[in-house]
Amino acid sequence: MYSQVLCGLCQNKEVLRVGAVFASGFIRAIRFLENNWSLLCKDIRNGTIDTRITDASVRGAVMKILRPDSELADFIEAECNKQSWQGIITRLWPNTKYVDVIVTGTMSQYIPTLDYYSNGLPLVCTMYASSECYFGVNLNPLCKPSDVSYTLIPTMAYFEFLPVHRNNGATNSITVPKSLNGKEQQELVDLVDVKIGQEYELLVTTYAGLYRYRVGDVLRVAGFKNKAPQFNFICRKNVVLSIDSDKTDEDELQNAVKNAVNHLMPFDATLTDYTSYAETSTGQGHYVLFWELSFNDSTPIPPSVFEDCCFTIEESLNSVYRQGRVSDKSIGPLEIKTLEAGTFDKLMDYAISLGASINQYKTPRCVKFAPIVELLNSRVVGNYFSPKCPKWVPGHSQWSNMN
């Protein structure tokens, strides 16, 4: 990353686009620049590369580009030294036309941060793909992130679709099994038979040999290009959190967090990243949300504001969760734990140390692996609980909605 950023700065007038696969990865690169710009300026000024870059081939490639340039170093130093980093992308790379990142699904939480750093440059989601195969493309790449839809290319793989039945906000299973049962096989539809507005789980049969592989993505049919269906990415199918009979999926959790962070706006604070954990080791199980915040103001946030955030999240969750809180008493008050700055960078570093790809890495929206939970808990700076139970009306549960 150091070498890529260094080359990008050396050729700052030639850069026409910036980005990464996922929005979270690109924001990590900007934070890396925030932490290392003085070293980068030193290398540009002297025409050298930091001794910590030890790979000979990387050093050789960089030195083909790098030349001593004190004027450029002064310019970068002046921009990075300013109190505000708003618009830093267009300030350092003035010819940048757009930011090429995926901002659909839970990546949408990073849109305000990207807009801040880029001065509102277009956020372009060009393609839809996974480790298993490419799926399709966005035929209108300059559309708003909320309007992104992907047209699946039928020669990429053989696509099949399993209808998703939502019960008051939660998808119809806790995990995605590897194989289909008999009923599911009968429900499968081909690409030409999907219906507009319906949500489906995507299955692929690939040239590499995967047969009816459950990708785990939930898509909604948004429309058609000629006769080709176009899909909105909704969420991952796996339920993120569950204590008792409650099932909270990624999409529902994202919407609940989005509602809650509105309480932080008066304090000029933003949510950098978050994950969650179902705490069941002590007595009454409850949801725990780990939040890392960034502050543009020195005004402290009162504990009552975080308590309001907890309550807002609970109010935003489905009725089965609220029944567990209010009537069954099987779920305890939701808890928010605030974290030290840089915690999610350390989480990413840990995942990469275990073999994860930096290009494919996404912050997990639920953690269960004990070492990760321990890492997060070791960096907690504050914890807050929902002060009261959310509203729940008897007879309006998930199960009654199924009748």
UniProtKB/TrEMBL annotation:
Q: Ligase as a keyword?
A: yes
Which superkingdom?
Eukaryota
Task: State the InterPro entries in the record.
Answer: GH3, GH3_C, GH3_M
Q: Which residues form the GH3 C-terminal domain?
A: 252-369
> Ligase among the record's keywords?
yes
> Residues of the signal sequence?
none
The UniProt similarity line reads: Belongs to the IAA-amido conjugating enzyme family.
Q: Which residues form the GH3 middle domain?
A: 150-236
Supply the alphabetized keyword list: Ligase
Q: Which GO terms describe its molecular function?
A: indole-3-acetic acid amido synthetase activity
One Pfam assignment: GH3_M
The name this protein carries in UniProt is: Uncharacterized protein
What's an example GO cellular component term for this entry?
cytoplasm
